[in-house]
């Protein structure tokens, strides 16, 4: 009889492979089942390859603005296939990195599609059709999610004219006139990328502002900045109809005032959300319950309703982000180790108030915690600080004076409730506030902390000072 694993992880994205490594570190016998590429969406088709594309766009943008820095760069051109090749190379390097890490940690990898045949049993069907059964005391479902298709009447993303994010990452050709449907983090990054690469880009958003989950001031600032770069933005606007043929895509768009406008585009990117990969993996057969939004239902340590079956990442409740999936992976691995008798681990349930979100459009966006509106809605009496990049020496020296840092504090206790940033490198800076929030910091610690000069991080200090009427540089 085959060995019984302590833990089987179904799916090897940033949730699954991190859970597997942590479980192995804790001395457990671990297997991972993966049907496509180790590293999941994040490394192969998500976070990483998009950032590689955006980096090329940023370099191109900087070349185009060379004169602003007293330099000249003539005849600079984008070579889209070469840009995509670099991005695929970066993804492949990281895929190999995960392969190495799993091997180093003695995690057994079963390549194939996994399906529950019983709570602790999975059949794994390889690409050649051969099948094996593996057994585990515990199984972690980490099967992630996929792009939600546009409704049938509005068109299927076939990769020719209508693209999902995968097509947009490996485009068959450069779009000349691109329509981006939606303005969440994933698609707004593509809007930014293709605009920098030279396409004419239009973004339509059903809500009344772009990046609607962010603070309203960040949305307003981004809309202005993107429009300045030449991106057309239409909010409170809905796609009514879409028809693609070899020549292009004809769409009908319903505007704010209810009028329907017809337009044609060379290509369309549609990102209307994600769907968890929880079908056809035997969950119904073993009785795993979904939540009200059809994700796998879990408790705060990642347990499903079936003993020994756990779930993490994009197949459970959001936010659907890689770092949230990895955090859940660590929690579940430690909770399993505890169940198996390890008394030294102390799994930390996810604290949703402290999950940062980053968007790598140009300018970048980063945030953590409550927006000003949400803090008010939650009944807090608040103090708000706002500091613009134009008041920061380093931002000006870098030629990046566009942006601001907004901080939201509890007026009574001084606790940092939220931070919202837009501008250069804010996706690197936000972690300062995340650590502060995790330590339940108040304005006092942030005010007394010494920020290095000259750095853009000084805007974080100044924003805190501004909230308490002590701003220096504006
Ligand atoms: C274009 C794009 C950009 C993104 N950018 C960011 C970003 O900048 N930052 C961020 O935090 N997040 C980003 N995300 C989201 C991020 O990729 C996901 O939140 C993250 O990958 C979720 O991790 P996961 O482990 O839950 O699942 P996934 O990464 O989706 O991995 C799940 C794995 O399970 C495998 N699998 C599924 N079913 C089976 C089965 N039955 N048998 C075997 N294997 C199976 C899949 O093949 C896949 O490899 C982005 C996503 C996209 C699409």
Topology:
Blueprint: E1 4-10, H1 16-25, E2 30-34, H2 40-45, H3 47-64, H4 80-104, E3 108-111, E4 113-118, E5 121-125, E6 131-141, E7 145-147, E8 162-163, H5 165-169, E9 177-181, H6 185-196, E10 200-204, H7 216-228, E11 232-234, E12 238-245, E13 248-254, E14 260-265, E15 267-270, E16 274-276, H8 283-286, E17 309-311, H9 322-339, E18 357-359, E19 365-369, H10 372-377, E20 382-388, H11 393-397, E21 403-410, E22 416-423, H12 426-438, H13 443-448, H14 458-467
Parallel strand pairs: 1-2, 1-6, 2-3, 6-17, 8-15, 9-10, 9-15, 10-11
Antiparallel strand pairs: 4-5, 5-6, 7-16, 12-13, 13-14, 18-19, 19-22, 20-21, 21-22
Helix pairs in contact: 1-9, 3-4, 3-6
This protein binds flavin-adenine dinucleotide.
Q: Quick gist of this model?
A:
With 474 residues, the chain is an alpha/beta fold. It has helices at residues 16-25, 40-45, 47-64, 80-104, 165-169, 185-196, 216-228, 283-286, 322-339, 372-377, 393-397, 426-438, 443-448, 458-467; strands at 4-10, 30-34, 108-111, 113-118, 121-125, 131-141, 145-147, 162-163, 177-181, 200-204, 232-234, 238-245, 248-254, 260-265, 267-270, 274-276, 309-311, 357-359, 365-369, 382-388, 403-410, 416-423.
How far is the first residue's CA from the last residue's CA?
72 Å
- CATH homology-level superfamily of the largest domain: FAD/NAD(P)-binding domain
- The parts where pLDDT drops under 50 for at least 5 residues are none
SSE class: alpha/beta
Q: Nearest-angstrom radius of gyration?
A: 24 Å
Strand tally is 22
Q: What is the beta-strand fraction? A: 15-25%
Work out the helicity level: 25-40%
Number of domains: 3
Mean pLDDT: 96
Q: What best-fitting shape do the alpha-carbon axes yield?
A: globular
Number of helices: 14
Give me the CATH architecture of the largest domain, please: 3-Layer(bba) Sandwich
């Amino acid at each position: 009889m085959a060995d019984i694993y302590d833990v089987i992880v179904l799916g090897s994205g940033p949730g699954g492979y991190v859970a597997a490594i942590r479980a192995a570190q804790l001395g457990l016998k671990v297997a991972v089942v993966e049907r496509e590429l180790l590293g999941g969406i994040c490394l192969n088709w998500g976070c990483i390859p998009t950032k590689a594309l955006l980096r090329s766009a940023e370099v191109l943008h900087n070349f185009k603005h060379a004169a602003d820095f007293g330099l000249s760069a003539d005849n600079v051109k984008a070579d889209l296939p070469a840009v995509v090749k670099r991005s695929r190379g970066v993804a492949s390097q990281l895929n190999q990195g995960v392969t190495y890490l799993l091997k180093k940690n003695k995690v057994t990898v079963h390549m194939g599609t996994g399906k529950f045949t019983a709570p602790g049993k999975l059949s794994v069907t390889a690409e050649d059709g051969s099948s094996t059964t593996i057994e585990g005391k515990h199984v972690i479902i980490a099967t992630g999610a996929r792009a939600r298709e546009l409704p049938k009447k509005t068109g299927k993303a076939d990769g020719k004219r209508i693209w999902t994010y995968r097509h947009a990452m490996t485009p068959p050709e450069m779009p000349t006139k691109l329509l981006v449907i939606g303005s969440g983090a994933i698609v707004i990054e593509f809007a930014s990328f293709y605009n920098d690469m030279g396409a004419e880009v239009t973004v339509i958003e059903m809500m009344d502002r772009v990046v609607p989950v962010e603070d309203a001031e960040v949305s307003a600032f981004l809309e202005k900045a993107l429009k300045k770069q030449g991106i057309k933005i239409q909010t409170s606007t809905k796609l009514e109809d879409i028809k693609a043929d070899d020549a292009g895509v004809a769409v009908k768009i319903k505007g704010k005032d209810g009028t329907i406008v017809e337009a044609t585009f060379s290509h369309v990117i549609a990102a209307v959300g994600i769907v968890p990969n929880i079908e056809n993996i035997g969950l119904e057969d073993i009785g795993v319950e979904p939540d009200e939004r059809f994700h796998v239902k879990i408790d705060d340590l990642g347990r499903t309703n079936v003993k020994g079956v756990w779930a993490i990442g994009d197949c459970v409740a959001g936010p659907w982000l890689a770092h949230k999936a990895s955090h859940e992976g660590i929690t579940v691995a430690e909770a399993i180790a505890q169940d198996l008798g390890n008394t030294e681990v102390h799994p930390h349930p996810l604290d949703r108030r402290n999950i940062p979100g980053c968007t790598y459009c140009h300018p970048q966006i980063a945030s953590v915690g409550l927006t000003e509106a949400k803090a008010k809605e939650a009944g807090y009496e608040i103090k708000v600080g706002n500091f613009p990049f134009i008041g920061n020496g380093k931002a000006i020296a870098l030629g990046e004076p566009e942006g601001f840092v907004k901080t939201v504090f509890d007026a009574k206790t001084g606790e940092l409730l939220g931070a919202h940033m837009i501008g250069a490198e804010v996706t690197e800076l936000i972690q300062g506030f995340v650590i502060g929030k995790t330590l339940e910091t108040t304005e006092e610690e942030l005010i007394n902390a010494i920020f290095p000069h000259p750095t853009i991080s000084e805007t974080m200090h100044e924003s805190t000072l501004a909230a308490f009427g002590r701003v220096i540089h504006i």
